[in-house]
Design brief:
single chain; 370 residues; alpha/beta; 5-stranded mixed β-sheet
């Protein structure tokens, strides 16, 4: 159970009382009251006034406690970062996009991010600080064998953050954060789903019963290095051959389109040309979408999720999603796809930041209770 879910429902106005939280979350009233009291004691919620009665005594009204404290978050990509100062409910107040080069190495990049976050902080108290990274991250906050992040493997981002920010810390793979952001955006009804980030690389996250499933070492959901027949003998950065990333990632697609005579620089070019109906790009995107669908079919049959949600740059391309969806319907058991939602992220570009906000609140409450 997540106290951040309560914060999100109260902040959005969907719930103004303990009774409404119990109804929306499906939790026992005693469980809701215990979590609400924790949030009140932590200074994140306040309860005052009286709402309308529905036959019993009037409920006390819940609201997010106003104050200057912020949650700081940075969602890193290969060449950019989206950073934000968020309120106590984990909702972005100020968002800024900055350019960076992830290949410059951890310390130069993190110094740049730290300076940008300090600027957004503007001297206010910090409730939590989080960073999302475009590569595998262990449970200890150490980057583990990333594909396109030279110099980062074995670096403890958590330790670096701890030396600069005195607050609860969140260090996660970007797909995991986007999945939690999607849970915030869609509400408590979405409890079992797979989130796929399809951008320069390919990543995925698994959420079961409303909880992020990290696995034994923290890298659950890494579908990018699953071998697919269509990959053949193409070498992958992991040292193997024929991984999904070699044919279905944005970087692989850019290379494939260039080989076929197209002119593209990045995934944004792919999406733009696909919308213009460029035949080279659309052919390659359909192929990549089908290969992604092949891998996801196994995941769907095994996990039986409510939804498969695609985010990242390539998710803005309808034919890419349609190709993956077609394979899922072909290869999965009818019972698993009967009510399966397959589509684009509802959280959009702020998904990673929303995920940081939610996990930072959970982390802060866990530390307060310890």
């Amino acid at each position: 159970m997540s106290a951040a879910q309560i914060m999100g429902l109260v902040a959005s106005g969907q719930a103004t009382s303990r009774a409404e939280l119990s109804r929306l979350l499906g939790w026992a009233p005693s469980t809701v009251s215990a979590h609400v009291q924790e949030l009140i004691d932590s200074g994140l919620l306040e309860e005052s006034g009286e709402g309308r009665s529905r036959g019993g005594r009037r409920p006390r009204l819940l609201s997010v406690r106003s104050g200057d404290a912020v949650i700081l978050g940075a969602d890193l990509g290969g060449h950019h970062a989206r950073i934000a100062a968020m309120d106590g409910s984990g909702r972005p107040q100020t968002i800024k996009d900055i350019t960076l080069d992830i290949a410059a190495g951890p310390e130069p990049v993190l110094e740049q991010i730290g300076d940008a976050l300090d600027e957004l902080r503007a001297g206010r108290p910090v409730l939590g600080t989080g960073i999302g990274l475009p590569g595998p991250v262990g449970l200890d906050g150490v980057v583990v064998g990333p594909s396109r992040m030279p110099g980062w493997s074995g670096f403890s981002v958590r330790q670096w953050l701890a030396e600069r920010f005195d607050s609860p810390l969140v260090v996660e793979n970007d797909a995991n954060l986007m999945a939690m952001g999607e849970a915030v955006a869609r509400g408590p009804e979405l409890r079992d789903f797979v989130f796929v980030k399809a951008g320069t690389g390919v990543g995925a996250a698994v959420v079961g019963d409303g909880r992020l499933h990290r696995g034994a070492r923290g890298i659950a959901g890494d579908i990018s290095h699953i071998r697919v027949p269509a990959g053949g003998d193409q070498p992958c950065s992991c040292g193997n051959f024929g991984c999904l990333e070699t044919i279905a990632s944005g970087a692989a697609l850019v290379a494939a389109v260039r080989r076929d005579g197209g002119t593209v620089e990045n995934t944004a070019d792919l999406v733009r040309l696909a919308r213009d109906g460029n035949p080279i790009v659309t052919t390659n995107l359909r192929f990549a979408g089908r290969q992604l669908g092949e891998v996801l079919a196994t995941v769907v049959n095994f996990f039986n999720p409510q939804a498969v949600i695609l985010g990242g740059a390539l998710a803005g391309c309808d034919l890419f999603i349609a190709a993956a969806r077609g394979v899922l319907y072909e290869r999965c058991l009818p019972l698993t796809t009967q009510d399966l939602d397959i589509g684009e992220s509802a959280a959009g570009p702020d998904a990673g930041l929303l995920g940081i906000g939610r996990l930072a609140i959970d982390q802060g409450l866990a530390l307060a209770a310890s």
